């Protein structure tokens, strides 16, 4: 059944392309889900930092997703979080040591944020929400999609902060800005706030606004995002079920009423019937109520 | 805002005060200080002020045209923002500085949050702090033909760091600071001109003394307890130097970004006084009014939440009843 559900852009749900698109646009971790904020704000003082941080996270995310998906059936529910941490930490250690050995400059620039990938919300969130419930192949592509979405988002944040704050693009000076002359009263001035924390928040806010616009345009094309489609389907199914039960109960009640009218030989049975019918009607009513409440919640969300 | 047609149920307060009228009064009250700034610092100050006001008005107009909203330039609030921003810039500011500041004040701080009445902090101060963090070199350059020295407050700060405030105080002429013949940003130097403007505002009923009064009093008390020097000369130098007066009377009292409740105003004023004291005494810079007010702006929703007055005749709900309702 699941394979036939259509997600965003009409892609089959859980297919590699759908997963990557989902991570990139629909559920972009940084710009839509707003998770993994710590590295997104702290290390994005330039675009190159963003790329390396993003790729390191993507690597850990994809591989830990695969492993967690593989062991999802043998890990008891109660110890799943420690188990996930062990898996994630192993891959992070790998990245940490490799970067330390081959990219000492970048390692120094990213500092504590490399080991902190262990507790990155994105990785943990995907392990918990996706990899522990789905197969290995979709989990791998989910990790790739989420990782690339994260990479693209923080590279974009880094790029804007770099252009405005230090006057460089990927560490290359442009437009006659003189990096060495930050303290002089001439040359193109750099907006120093953008290399400081408030600038990160401002750039993030503008990129989120842009992302909302993109998502709106996509939705207006009539191509519903996967999430909303699924939710709507579930809701209508629940409502239908409730309605059916209601009808059934009504029918039973009618029967009971008829029985009373006819005054058959077995009044006890009629009574029983009546009671049962009433019970069912009550149940159906409650079902409908629940469904309505759920719907309200969804709407208010 | 001034043409609100949706009328709630009575009783109504009748008033001819429109936003435009209030802003007009604020502009009139700002003129003495602005005028003194121009007299004190020369043509460059006039150009900075004009550019700042012009940018703010133009930005508001363009933004409202682009997003197809009703143009509210006529309420003059953008003029007040521009004037305040210009008065918070040094007279040596390059001409792009007020333009960038005006853009930030109107577009980022004011319009993106919903326009007048919705901004979470004072737009002029938001822009000043943005410029101060972004372009510290330009924002701290007070050297102009008449004044080559540091501002009185930074002189005091240096002395404090060197551990010799008394000598520095002897070198300061407090009378000059009160009249305004010192270096500083365009609108802050003259205490007299600002107090004249403040009197206009108070007499016209635009502001009351709750916020500025509690601000200044709590600041003085803070200095008396924690200041490096408790002499009256130090206190009066701290009061007349820097942006304290301008901030207390014109920026802390901004209707939108200050508490609306009476007790909240006192809390807000005291908070500002203490924060200004902390910044000036313990901070690295001699000045701290704008950061203090911005921090205070952020706390306003919380202050208001805890100081909502009880309506006449309504008693506090007994706790038991609440629980029953919740259940």
Mean pLDDT level of chain B? 87
- In percent terms, what proportion of residues of chain B is strand? under 5%
How many strand elements of chain A? 2
What string gives the helices and strands of chain B in order? HHHHHHHHHHHHHHHH
The structure class of chain A reads: mainly alpha
How many domain regions of chain A? 2
Q: Unreliable segments of chain B (pLDDT under 50, ≥5 consecutive)?
A: none
Report the largest inter-chain contact. A-B, 11 and 9 residues
Strands of chain B, count: 0
Helix/strand-derived class of chain B? mainly alpha
Proportion of beta-strand residues of chain A: under 5%
Radius of gyration of chain A: 28 Å
As a whole number of angstroms, the C-alpha radius of gyration of chain B is 21 Å
Q: Number of domains in the coordinates of chain B? A: 1
CATH class of chain B: Mainly Alpha
User: Within the CATH hierarchy, at the fold level, what is the topology of chain B?
Assistant: Ammonium transporter fold
The number of helical elements of chain A comes to 10
Q: Helicity range of the residues of chain A? A: 55-70%
The arrangement of helices and strands of chain A along the chain is HHHHHHHEEHHH
Global shape of chain A: elongated
Features:
heterodimer, A: 301 residues, mainly alpha, two-stranded antiparallel ribbon, 10 helices, elongated, B: 327 residues, Ammonium transporter fold, 63% helix, globular
Q: Describe it for me?
A:
The complex is a heterodimer of chains A (301) and B (327). Chain A is mainly alpha-helical and 301 residues long. Chain A folds into 2 domains: 8-227, no CATH class; 229-301. Chain A has helices at 16-26, 37-42, 47-70, 80-102, 104-110, 121-131, 136-165, 197-220, 226-262, 267-300, and strands at 168-169, 172-173. In chain A, a hairpin with a 2-residue loop joins strand 1 and strand 2 (172-173). In chain A, helix 4 (80-102) packs across helix 5 and helix 4 packs across helix 6. Chain A is elongated, with a radius of gyration of 28 Å. Residues 179-185 of chain A have low confidence and may be disordered. With 327 residues, chain B is an all-alpha fold. Chain B has one domain (19-306): Ammonium transporter fold. Chain B contains 16 helices and no strands. Chain B has helices at 19-41, 43-66, 77-87, 96-110, 123-134, 136-139, 152-162, 165-171, 174-179, 191-203, 210-226, 232-240, 244-251, 262-282, 289-306, 319-326. In chain B, helix 3 (77-87) crosses helix 4. The radius of gyration of chain B is 21 Å and the shape is globular. Chain B starts with 18 loop residues before the first helix and ends with a helix. The A-B interface holds A 183-185, 189, 191-194, 196, 198, 202 and B 108, 130, 133-138, 141.
């Amino acid at each position: 059944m699941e394979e036939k559900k259509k997600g965003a852009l009409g892609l089959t749900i859980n297919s590699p392309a759908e997963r990557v698109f989902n991570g990139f646009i629909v559920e972009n971790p940084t710009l839509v889900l707003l998770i993994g904020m710590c590295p997104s704000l702290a290390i994005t003082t330039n675009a190159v930092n963003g790329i390396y941080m993003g790729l390191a996270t993507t690597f850990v995310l994809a591989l830990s997703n695969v492993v967690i998906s593989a062991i999802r059936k043998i890990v008891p529910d109660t110890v799943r979080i420690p188990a996930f941490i062990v898996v994630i930490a192993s891959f992070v250690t790998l990245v940490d040591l490799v970067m330390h050995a081959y990219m000492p400059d970048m390692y120094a620039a990213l500092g504590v944020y490399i080991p902190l990938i262990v507790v990155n919300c994105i990785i943990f969130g995907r392990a918990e929400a996706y990899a522990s419930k789905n197969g290995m192949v979709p989990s791998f592509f989910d990790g790739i999609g989420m990782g690339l979405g994260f990479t693209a988002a923080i590279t974009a944040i880094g790029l804007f902060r770099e252009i405005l704050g230090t006057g460089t693009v990927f560490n290359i000076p442009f437009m006659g800005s003189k990096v060495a002359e930050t303290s002089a009263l001439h040359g193109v001035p750099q907006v120093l706030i953008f290399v400081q924390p408030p600038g990160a928040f401002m750039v993030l806010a503008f990129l989120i606004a842009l992302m909302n616009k993109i998502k709106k345009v996509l939705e207006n094309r009539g191509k519903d995002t996967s999430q909303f489609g699924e939710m709507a389907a579930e809701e209508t199914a629940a409502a239908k079920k409730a309605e059916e039960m209601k009808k059934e109960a009504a029918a039973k009640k009618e029967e009971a009423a008829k029985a009373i009218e006819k005054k058959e030989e077995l009044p006890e049975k009629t009574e029983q019937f009546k009671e049962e019918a009433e019970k069912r009607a009550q149940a159906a009513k409650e079902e409908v109520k629940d469904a309505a409440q759920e719907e309200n919640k969804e709407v208010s969300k | 805002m001034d043409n609100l047609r949706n009328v709630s149920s009575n009783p109504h307060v009748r008033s001819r005060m429109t936003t435009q009228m209030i802003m007009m009064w604020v502009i009139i009250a700002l003129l003495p200080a602005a005028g003194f700034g121009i007299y004190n610092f020369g043509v460059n100050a006039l150009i900075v002020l004009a550019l700042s006001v012009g940018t703010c008005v133009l930005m508001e107009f363009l933004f409202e045209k682009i997003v197809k909203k009703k143009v509210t330039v006529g309420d003059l609030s953008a003029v007040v923002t521009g004037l305040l921003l210009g008065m918070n810039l040094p007279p040596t500011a390059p001409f792009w500085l007020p333009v960038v500041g005006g853009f930030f004040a109107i577009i980022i701080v004011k319009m993106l949050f919903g326009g007048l009445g919705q901004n979470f902090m004072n737009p002029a101060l938001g822009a000043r702090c943005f410029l101060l963090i972004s372009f510290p070199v330009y924002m701290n350059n007070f050297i102009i033909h008449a004044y080559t020295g540091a501002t009185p407050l930074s002189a005091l700060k240096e002395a404090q760091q060197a551990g010799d405030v008394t000598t520095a105080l002897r070198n300061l002429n407090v009378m000059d600071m009160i009249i305004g013949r010192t270096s500083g940003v365009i609108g802050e130097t003259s205490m007299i001109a600002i107090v004249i403007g403040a009197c206009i505002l108070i007499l016209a009923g635009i502001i009351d003394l709750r916020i500025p009064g509690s601000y200044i009093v709590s600041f003085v008390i803070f200095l008396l307890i924690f200041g490096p020097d408790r002499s009256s000369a130090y206190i009066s130098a701290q009061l007349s130097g820097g942006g304290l007066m301008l901030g207390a009377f014109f920026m802390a009292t901004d209707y939108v970004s200050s508490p609306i409740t009476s007790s909240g105003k006192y809390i807000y004023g005291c908070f500002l006084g203490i924060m200004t004291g902390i910044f000036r005494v313990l901070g690295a810079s001699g000045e701290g009014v704008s950061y203090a007010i911005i921090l205070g702006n952020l706390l306003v929703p919380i202050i208001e939440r805890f100081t909502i007055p009880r309506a006449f005749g309504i008693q506090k709900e007994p706790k038991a009843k609440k629980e029953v309702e919740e259940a």
